[in-house]
Amino acid sequence: MLRLKNKFKFGTSTPSSSNSSTHDKSESPDLNSTSNSSPRNSVDSRRTISVNNLTENVSKLSIDQHSNNSGGTSTQNGSSTAINSSISMETPSQSASSDVINEQPNTTVISNPGLLTVKIYNSNNIQLPIEINNNKRILHALAINSNNASVSQQLLRNLSTLSTPNEVDDDNENGGLNDNNASEYLSGGIATNLLPSIITIPSENLVKSLLYLTIEFENNVLLIEPQKGSVNQSTWNQVVSFDVTKSSLSNPNSSNGSNGSNNNNTGSNFLNLNLFIRLPNSLIPESEKESKKHLFTNYNSSSPNAAANSTNIGDLLIGTIKLPLNLKYHTKQIRLMNHEYLKFNNFNLGQNLSKEMGEIMLTIEFKPILKTHLSIDDFDLLKVIGKGSFGKVMQVVKKDTKQIYALKTLRKQHIVSRMEVTHTLAERTVLARINNPFIVPLKFSFQSPEKLYLVLSFINGGELFWHLQREGKFSMDRSRFYIAELLTALESLHELNVIYRDLKPENILLDYQGHIALCDFGLCKLNMGNDDRTSTFCGTPEYLAPELLLNQGYTRSVDWWTLGTLLYEMLTGLPPFYDDDTNTMYRKILQNPLKFPGFLEGSDAQDLLIQLLQKDPKHRLNDAEKIRSHRFFKDIDWQKLLNKSYLPPFKPNVENLLDTSNFDQEFTKEKPQDSVVDDFLTESVQKQFGGWTYNGENAFN
Ligand SMILES: Nc1ncnc2c1ncn2[C@@H]1O[C@H](COP(=O)(O)OP(=O)(O)OP(=O)(O)O)[C@@H](O)[C@H]1O
Q1: Is the CB of 420 under 6 A from ligand 1?
Q2: Which domains does the chain have, with CATH numbers?
Q3: Which pTM does this prediction carry?
């Protein structure tokens, strides 16, 4: 059975719309009805239900078409105004709402936002973490594709003298020398030594460079290739830049909890460099493919393509550099590192071994940017990549720094008329506060009189929903990896007293490397302490926890129920109580026992699922630390996970940061434009959006 994606946010259509699904909290599902209101195979079968409960009701807001419009820009008057207006978010009409973080009036501005520039000069002594096949033919092919004629000639000469006629080619039992199989194998470890030290790096369009380096900062990943040289020694001469905003302004060492799990300030404050080699498959011995598979970018892919081509296990990770950056307090341009060599380490060679794999020379500079106001004119619009409930999501490039971002636009009038002001502000507030490596980072937010804009890191590996649909289900290892990253994301939200409430594959993106990036914070509930209860009926039908359906009030425990539901769906292909008929599904969630397919019987996963999918929240595994300690995760080193030091088991097919092939063509073929709208909102309505603008300056400690 397959389900299609929910494209509409349930409950955000206009109240007058016949299709409106906005329920008051008192509106609990009619469990006696058998109406097929959410057919599995209809486009809206995975819809999010968003309901404003009475305390969240902002229905007092109205659009006065006749009043004078002076709002909208009034909040963009500089940093102190931005902070003040952020505090004044709790306007009279929202004073009863608890969906506004109680920010401290005396919060200090801790730094300026700015630009981080990394210059990469050259790398030396790069080693390979595996033995490679002594295959002369492949080395020969690489040599003739080399961009360095003299090195190429030298290698070809060396290769001819290194022939070992005694080595027998698999395809030629006579071992004779002929054009097809001429002594393809070299003796001993010659090829392993030759490759790093002699093979030059092809640079013609036809052949990709053997080496490439990914540089990641706050989930923005850039890929660069060397200009010339050998694998062992190459010249890069590349410059890359990153916008620095809130998450990079905090001290990376300040809040790594004692158990290595407190993660509000981990991960994103580091510059991560990963050096890979595109090693031809025929150079990788089968034994190395098996024993070192975790060093390859697609080691555990369960995709049909990977199965069909099991020899393609991806690129090989040579080593990693993880550099903590403390950019606090720099008000002037500063050089943080000047032509320094940093060592690559490989942490995945087993038994807690970390092996040096060579070095690279860098210069790192930080330059504060004092421009405080952004507008749509600061961006070039590249592609439409999605549609949200209140507007488009576009791939854009920031004109000054050339950084690629996702720009989410939200039309104020739609937000107001659908009574979603509180949820919308909550989304911006959570995104600005949170700092977890598996949550899509907010870089900036700004507004015009008609629209709100969120500038987010552009995550282009596709939705987890899409990958799950394509592959049916995921392997145990792959599911564990995603669930572990999501567990830390939910935990960091809970540490901020935020409930997420809408975990589902549609809201989970995969980044360039295959790590999780949780997005869409439109249903978050703020100021929810450990045992605080709320009662808004919202979420997605398949993922609703029993206590939410019973309308008896619920706590943050609903997020652990949804985590269990998601794990079940990843492992089996469907959520645990799935039914085409929504009300039947609700009844099953409330009444049916949890059933497992045979392959899960007796597994650690089954035990964890039983504990997460307890219908009574009192009996549920409700504590992030306890979940982490469950034996399902026994092999996970959580600090290593937070450091993104595990190579993801599946690498999405992404060419580069501009690549939009993982997005629906329905969107990408649309012309990207910021549509002109003629909405008119009163000053009091504009005031509701006062705290929206964010450029890193109003970061809070
Ligand atoms: N940071 C991002 N990088 C890449 N694509 C993104 C990003 N954010 C959103 N998208 C794409 O845009 C689509 C719509 O975005 P989003 O999920 O935030 O909208 P939505 O679910 O309607 O949001 P809302 O519930 O706030 O209306 C996503 O499904 C995703 O494909």
Answers
A1: no
A2: 61-110+462-642 (1.10.510.10), 114-368 (2.60.40.150)
A3: 0.77
